[in-house]
UniProtKB/TrEMBL annotation:
GO molecular function, one term: oxidoreductase activity
Organism: Denitrobaculum tricleocarpae
Keyword flag Lipid metabolism: no
Ranges where the Oxidoreductase molybdopterin-binding domain occurs: 116-268
Keyword field: Oxidoreductase
Protein's UniProt name: Protein-methionine-sulfoxide reductase catalytic subunit MsrP
Length: 331
């Protein structure tokens, strides 16, 4: 069973498809992939799969009730050493196993209904909270941040997320002093996410942080992308962004935040713990067991660039790990 799963998204970079090939393939495959999910949205999508001008966002014609909230003001404290990735690439080259194991899932993801969307905040808290997404968005301090994103597969991008600091949600939750971890859980509904019919995966997708990590200023819940509501394929309506950690920590489609004193076992950790651990901090000097992490392919850029310790965010997060040298911090 594990052998099958290993063929998934964990391709060594040398085997990853360059996006030019990918985009060509996408146009070739256009129209061939119609299943029940695509059929349901075929009317919305037809004519919208342009090869250059249309973005994936534009293909989704359901009005998003949060659209009026964006754009929000950019927080200039977080700066980049690279160009922002094109919206077209960032919204059509995705990892979202609920909708399939290829990078080309953006159309399938349009089947996810975003309203009603209820978020549960529970576990070791003073009182559990159940809140609708629009009420949550109204309470949270929204801002825009440009962040680097580094996938463990050794591709990367730089994108403008809108959203709120995870700390604002932790403060609202009022966790008990005994809570040590925050577990975050993706929706589960195999009637819209056909990938969840694959029973060898431990659905729903789960990720976790320590409370200290969750309260770090960089930990962000993205609700928008490129000055608009975040597209479904990128994790709408709520998705974690912890830019010093590998991309698989950035759990999408969140429905539950649970405070706990037990370290959560995350989705990929459960599948292959020797390759995907709890901490998963970016470090170019610690290779994945099957490939190097020294460099990365920036989407849309021809040359590989060196990967940075903590993905370049050491000044914000290195202190979190002093005293934890015995832990497998980088895988
Ligand atoms: N629920 C869920 N969240 C997920 C994933 C997934 O398969 N399911 N993939 C992760 C991985 S491996 C990466 S690199 C990022 C990709 O985010 P993007 O598609 O917005 O670039 O999402 C992460 N979050
Ligand atoms: Mo990833």
């Amino acid at each position: 069973m594990l052998i099958k799963i290993k063929k998934g998204w964990e391709l060594p970079e040398s085997a990853a498809t360059p996006e030019s090939t990918f985009l060509k393939r996408r146009s070739l495959l256009k129209g061939l992939a119609a299943g029940p999910i695509l059929a349901a949205t075929a009317g919305l999508l037809s004519g919208c799969d342009g090869e250059n001008s249309q973005t994936a966002q534009a293909a989704d014609s359901e009005p998003d009730p949060s659209a009026g909230l964006y754009p929000v003001q950019r927080n200039l404290r977080y700066r980049l050493d690279r160009e922002i990735t094109s919206e077209e690439l960032a919204t059509t080259y995705n990892n979202y196993y609920e909708f399939g194991s290829s990078k080309n899932i953006w159309q399938k993801a349009q089947a996810l209904p975003l309203r009603p969307w209820t978020v549960q905040i529970d576990g070791m808290v003073e009182a559990p909270i159940e809140i609708g997404i629009d009420d949550l968005l109204a309470k949270m301090p929204l801002e825009e941040r440009v962040y680097r994103h580094r996938c463990v597969e050794a591709w990367s991008m730089a994108v403008p997320y809108s959203g709120f600091p995870l700390k604002a949600l932790v403060d609202m939750a009022r966790p008990l002093g005994s809570a040590k971890y925050l577990k975050m859980v993706t929706f589960k509904d195999e009637s819209v996410a056909s990938g969840q019919k694959a029973s060898w995966y431990p659905w729903p997708y789960v990720e976790g942080l320590t409370i200290e990590e969750a309260n770090n200023e960089l930990s962000f819940i993205a609700t928008g992308l490129y000055g608009k509501p975040i597209p479904k394929q990128n994790g709408a309506p709520l998705r974690l962004a912890v830019p010093w950690k590998y991309g698989f920590k950035h759990v999408k489609g969140l429905v539950r935040f649970e405070f706990t004193d037990k370290r959560p076992v995350s989705f990929w950790e459960e599948i292959q713990g020797s390759e995907y651990g709890f901490w998963a901090n970016v470090n170019p000097e610690v290779p994945h067991p099957r490939w190097s992490q020294a460099t990365e392919r920036l989407l849309g850029v021809d040359e590989r660039v060196p990967t940075l310790l903590y993905n370049g965010y050491g000044e914000f997060v290195a202190d979190l790990y002093s005293g934890l040298q015995g832990e497998r911090l980088f895988i």
